[in-house]
Amino acid sequence: MKRVLIVKVTSLGDVVEALPVVADVQRKFPGAKVDWAVDDAFAEIVHWNAGIDRVLCAPLRRFKKARRWSDFKAIWDSIAELRAERYDAIIDIHGVYKSAIIAFIARGKRRFGYLAQDLGEQGAAFAYNGRFGPRPKCDAWLGMRISTGEALGYTVDTPPDFQMRIPRDGNALPAPDAPTALIFHATSKEEKKWPVAHWGELCNELVKRGLRIELPWGSDAEHATAKEIAALVPGAVILPRLTVTQVAQRIEDSALVVGTDTGFVHLGHALLKPTVMIFVATNAEHLGVRAPDRSISIGDGHHVPPVSVALDAIDRVYPARTGDASKGPAVTAV
C-alpha cells in the first residue's frame, strides 16, 4: 500500500475526530502516503496533522450557499489536483453525495464506502466498488477507524493518535498568566445550547477553584451570549474574535476546556486537554468525547444536564486543588 486517499469533507468536529485514521494506516503500512479530501473551510485543520502528505480542498460548502463563479472555478480547478495521483485505495468515511463524487472522480483501484443502510445519503452508493462491513456498535469516531481498517485489512487496537501540530506565529494571543478554563458556550443549533444561568453558576465555581474564565465567540449572537455569561461571572474575559488557528492556540494554552457539542470542544480533546462536553439534544454515546481521566461527555440528549453533573465531570478530569492553583493536573495522553 503506497498511497491512500481519505475522504472526510465536513464538519470541524467530525474532521478532527477522523484524523486518527492517518496514524492507523501508516502504522500498518510504514511509508505509505496519505492524502485527505476536505471542504476548504476545514482544510487548515487537516494541515495540522503531521502524517498527511496532500490536503485536497475545494469550497463546496461556500458554493452551495452563494453559487459564486469564483467558487465554481476553484472546485473545477481542484479536480485536476485530485486526479494528479493514482491511489491504491480511496476510503470515503463520510458517505454522502459530495464525498462519493470526490471518491468517484479520484483515480484509484478500489473505492470503499458504507453499505447502503449506513450511508448518510443512499444514492452515494454508486461511487464504490468495495464496502465496509455494517457500522460497528460503538461511537462514530472509533467506527470510522474500524471501517478504514476493514477496507485495508487491519484491526484497530490502539488509542487514537491525532498527530496534531498547531502552528505558532505572531498572531497568537499572549499566553494567559493564570490557569484558564475556555468556555465554548456556542453551538450550531439552538436546541443544543446550555442555559446561560447554568454557565454562570459553573464558571463562578471554577473561579473559586482558581481558574480564569475565557469566553470565545464567532458571531454577533455568540458575542451577545458571551456578554450575558460574563455579566454573571466577575473577572470573566470575553476574547476578541479569533481565527480557527488562534482558537487552537488558545486551547493549547488552556488548563481546561468545557463546552457544548461543538467542533472546538472536539479539538480540545484531540489536543489532549482536560475536556468536558455537554450534550443537551444530541447523543453523547455516539458523538461524544471520552478518554480515561481526561475527556468526559455528559447528558442523555433529552434533558438539560444540571450544573452539579458538569462539576462532577470536571472533578474527574481536572480535580479541585487545595494547594497551588497555578499548577494544572497531570494529563493522561491517549
Automatic annotation (TrEMBL):
UniProt entry keywords in alphabetical sequence: Cell inner membrane, Cell membrane, Glycosyltransferase, Lipopolysaccharide biosynthesis, Membrane, Transferase
Pfam families in the cross-refs: Glyco_transf_9
EC numbers, comma separated: 2.4.99.23
Pathway: Bacterial outer membrane biogenesis; LPS core biosynthesis
SUPFAM superfamilies: UDP-Glycosyltransferase/glycogen phosphorylase
The keyword Zinc-finger is assigned to this record: no
GO biological process: lipopolysaccharide core region biosynthetic process
Class of this enzyme: transferase
Annotated GO CC locations: cytosol; plasma membrane
Main subcellular localisation: membrane
Keyword Transmembrane helix attached: no
Reaction equation(s) it catalyzes: an alpha-Kdo-(2->4)-alpha-Kdo-(2->6)-lipid A + ADP-L-glycero-beta-D-manno-heptose = an L-alpha-D-Hep-(1->5)-[alpha-Kdo-(2->4)]-alpha-Kdo-(2->6)-lipid A + ADP + H(+)
Record GO terms (molecular function): ADP-heptose-lipopolysaccharide heptosyltransferase activity
UniProt-recorded name of the protein: Lipopolysaccharide heptosyltransferase 1
Species in which this protein is naturally found: Paraburkholderia eburnea
Lineage, uppermost ranks: Bacteria, Pseudomonadati, Pseudomonadota, Betaproteobacteria, Burkholderiales
